Structures are given as structure tokens and as C-alpha cells.
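Hi everyone,

Forwarding the result from last night's run.
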Amino acid sequence: MPDRLTPEQRHKNMSSIHSRNTKPEILVRQYLWSHGYRYRLNSKKLPGKPDIVLAKYKTCIFINGCFWHGHDGCRYYTVPKSNTEFWVNKVARNRQRDGQVRQKLEIMGWHCITIWECELKKEKRKQTLESLLDMLSRFYFKGMGISIYEIQEDDICFMVAEDSNTQYDS
């Protein structure tokens, strides 16, 4: 199917898309702020200028658009029918750069979280944001040297109440 827009119209549409203050990014920021997390935006001091930086948790959050970063298996990532070679190369470069940035940050001791645009759609949003908070709390405790143990049902010891009339010899 040919493009419905002229090349000039398509150029205008694509050039008006910005990389900062996107709706998914604002959604995550509002959620974090409402839960007491404080952060910096697009820190120039770190490789890749992460979308959200939580220094206390030594964590960077990248909110990626499925189309621009080539989210595998996502219905929002489709290769355009016009100028296909250009778009395939562009997305490949974006993915390569994302990997390099993530690697640099991890070498520096930072945790990296990537949230995909499709994970913030209404049907998945609550689960995604709650798991984000869970990850942040785990990173915080890990940084404090505190281990988090998950109790399995088999490990729980049940205590039986004793009769209050029972007396012990001392």
C-alpha cells in the first residue's frame, strides 16, 4: 500500500516528533513523583542522557518508543513501506547505540531500566508501573547491602498456641 501522504507531508509529520517530554515519559514521571521518588531529567553527565535518573537508587530509566527503538514482537513496530532501507538502518543504529549506552552505564555501576511505549498502554500500565516500583526498591536495598529474601510457603513454621494452664518448672 503506497503512502497516503506526500513526501513533504510525511517529512513534516516525522520532523514534528520530539524525543523529550513524550506522553509515556510524562506518565512514568507523574507516577514516580506521586509515590515519593525524586529524579533528574535527561542528565547530560551520563552516557545517552537517560530520560529519568534516580541518583539515590543509582538507576537510569529509558522510556523507548516501540517504533524508534525497534521493539521486537511488538505490534507498534512496523517497518514503513516507503524508504524502507533508510528506516531499517536507522532503527538498527538506534538499537546499537542503546546497547552501547546501557553497557557504559552498567560499567559505571548504574542500573538500567527500559520501559517500552506499549507497556504503558491502558491494559498493561498498572502492572508495568508497579513492577517499576518493585525494581527500584530492590535496587535500593541491594545498594544498602540488605538482602531480600522471599519466603516460600514450605519454609513457614506454624506455631501452635499452648494451653494457658500449662506451667513449666524452672
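The CA atoms of residues 28 and 134 lie 14 Å apart.

Cheers,
N.
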